[in-house]
Amino acid sequence: MRQGRTTLHFERGGFYADVENVNAMLCGRCGTRSVPGKMALKISAAVERLFRAGKDLDMTGISFHKLAS
Questions:
Q1: Which pTM does this prediction carry?
Q2: Separation between Cα atoms, residue 16 and residue 14, nearest integer Å
């Protein structure tokens, strides 16, 4: 396992969300990704709020990005 960055993909109820550039431990052999506990909980809570808000919207997508400094 080595420190790196990855994209997490979530799908629910016909919607999907990608969380990009997440710090994680990555396995070059099997592709396993491990996100530290606190960060995983924060990401999960944010994505869950997004899915709850999106279920009542007529939309094709929402994109949210942090600009590079």
A1: 0.75
A2: 7
